[in-house]
Amino acid sequence: MKSLPSRPDIDHLKRQAKDLLADFRRAAPDAVARFRNALPLAAGRDPASVSRLNLRLHDAQSCIAREYGFDSWTDLKAYVDARRSSEGDPAILAKAFCRLVYAEDLADGTNRARPQAASRLLTEHPDLPARDPWIACAAGDAALVRRQLEGDPSWVNRVGGPLGLTPLIAATHSSFLRVPEYRDGLHKVVDLLLDAGADINLSVSKNSASVADAPPQAWRVSALHGAAGVNFDFDLTRRLLAAGANPNDGESLYHSLDKPVCTPLLLEFGATVTGTNALFRSLDFDDLDTFKLLLSHAEGTDELKGGRLLFWAIRRRRSPAHIKALLAAGVDPAVQTKDGVSAYVQALRYGLPDVAAALKAAGAASDLSEDEQFMASCARNDAEEARRIRARRPDLPAALEDTQLKMLPELAAAGCSGPVALMAELGWPITMRGGDWNASALNHAVFRGDAAMARQLLACGASWTEEHGFGDNVCGTLSWASWNQPLDDGDWVGCAEALVAYGMPGAQPDNEDPDCVVVAGKRRRFSEDVAAYLLQRGAENAG
C-alpha cells in the first residue's frame, strides 16, 4: 500500500488520477498493470483485455484510492478533507472525526458515515479519545470510558461532545460497530455505561431537512435506533432490549427495515407496527418474508383498511406474492383511488399483468376501457397492440387524463426503459411531470444514471431545461445524482454526454470555488468525471 504525504492535497490526487487515465489511454504498460492490481473491474483480466475497457476518470480515482488503502475515492477525499480542515485545531479535528464516524443528520450533514476514513484519522491521532470521553465512546475505548465513569459517575447521562450526544448514543450510533476490530470494544463500552446506570431510553433532539430551503424537522435519536436502525447490530440490539430499551421509540422499527436483521427482534420485544409506516417502508424492498412478518403483527390495523398499502405495493412494483399477502391480511381487492381507479387498472398501468391477474382471481372487476387497454399495452411494452389501438384511436395519447399521462414519468422513475421508449415514440407529452419528486421522465432517467433512456427521451423532444419539484432542472438533477450516486450502476457521464449532444452547454471553471463549475451561468457541483467531461466540452465550444 502506498503512503500518503504528511499533508495530502486532494488537487494533487486528482492530477494523479487524470495522469493515470491519460497513460492508460496511451496503452502505457505500467498504467494497465496498476488498474489490474487495484481496480476490481480489471482484476483477473489479462493486459490486453484490460486495455480494451472503457475506463473513465472515476475508475482512475478508484484505482488511486485503493493504492492508498481506501475502498473508494469518496473515502479518500473525506479523509483528506478532514485532515486539511483540522490542521492545528483539536476542536475542529474532533468535529471532523465525528463527521466521518457518524452518519448524515446525526453529524449535522447529509453524507454517509465513513468508518474507514475515521479509522485512518484515529490511527494518526490516537490522543483523540483521551481528549473527549464522547469520542472515547465512539471509538470503543473501554479503558478510557471506565476511568471517566470512575472519576465522574454523573457523566453517564450527560449530553455533550462535538455533536451533543449522550455517551450511550455516542457508542450505539458509531459506524465503528461495522468494523470488526472496533466492535467488541464498543460492546464493552455499552456494557460499562449500562452497568453505571445509563438511562437506556434517554434521547436527544436533532434537526434535519431533506430539501435545502425546507424548514428543519425535529426528530428524536435514541440508543436503540443506533443499534437496530443504523448499524444493524443484532447482539447489541438484543442487549439493549433486554435491558429495557423501548422498541416503540418512533425510529428503530422503521429504519431497521433497511437491513432487517434486527426487525424480528424488535417485534419480539413488543414493537408496534401500527402508525410507524413500517409496512409502507417494507414495500420499498423486495423482501416478502419481512413484509409477511410485519403483517402478522399488524392484524386489524387501520393501515390495512382502504387501499393505500395495496396501491403503494403496486407503485413499488412488488410481486404477486406481496399482493396475495395483503389480500390474505384483509385488504379489499376492489379498492379504488380517490379518482376512481381500481387496483386492477393501476396494476396494468404499471405494466404488472401478473399482479392484475392475482387481483382478478380475488374478485376484482377486470373491465377495461379502450384508453386503459392502450395504456396497459404501452406499460407492458406491447408495441404491436398499442399501435393497433392507436390506429383506431388517433386521439391517443392526447385524449388521456393527466393522471394517466403521469405514467410516463412514473415508469421512467422505475427504470422501465422499454415502455418509456414506446410511450415517447407514440407521442406521450414528454414534459409531463410525476413520480415522488414531481419530475419529468428525463429528470428521472438522469437521476438513475440511465444514459440510454435519457438519450431516447431527448431524441423524442425532451430538454435539459425541464424542471422538477425541487425547483431545479435536469442539469441540477445531473449535479445531485452524479455526486450522490443513488444507484450503484448509474452512468452519469453518459447522461452528460447525451444532454450536451442535445443542447445543454458545457461548463466553465468557477473562479470562486474550485470544487464547482458554471453551467449556463449557474454554479454546479458534479462528480469529478462528469465535471471533467463538461469542462472539456465547454473549452471546446469556447475555442
Topology:
Blueprint (H helix, E strand, L loop, with lengths): L9 H16 L3 H10 L8 H5 L5 H11 L5 H13 L4 H12 L13 H10 L3 H4 L1 H7 L2 H10 L15 H6 L7 H16 L8 E5 L8 E5 L1 H8 L3 H9 L9 H5 L6 H6 L9 H5 L5 H9 L11 H8 L4 H9 L14 H7 L3 H9 L8 H10 L3 H10 L9 H4 L1 H7 L3 H9 L7 E2 L4 E2 H8 L2 H9 L14 H11 L7 H10 L5 E3 L7 E3 L2 E3 L3 H15 L1
Antiparallel strand pairs: 1-2, 3-4, 5-6, 6-7
Helix pairs in contact: 1-2, 1-4, 4-5, 5-6, 5-7, 6-7, 10-12, 13-14, 18-20, 21-22, 23-24, 26-27, 26-28, 27-29, 28-29, 28-30, 29-31, 30-31, 31-32
Largest sheet, in brief, is: 3 strands, antiparallel
CATH topology of the domain at 401-542: Serine Threonine Protein Phosphatase 5, Tetratricopeptide repeat
Secondary-structure class: mainly alpha
CATH class of the domain at 401-542, named Mainly Alpha
Relative helix content: 40-55%
Strand order of the largest sheet: 5-6-7
Provide the β-strand percentage band: under 5%
Q: Cα distance, first to last residue?
A: 42 Å
Low-confidence stretches: 209-216
Radius of gyration: 26 Å
| Strand tally | 7
CATH architecture of the domain at 401-542: Alpha Horseshoe
Corresponding CATH superfamily of the domain at 401-542: Ankyrin repeat-containing domain
In DSSP terms (H or I, runs of 4 or more residues), the helix count works out at 32
Q: Label the overall shape.
A: flat
Instruction: Quote the average pLDDT.
Output: 94
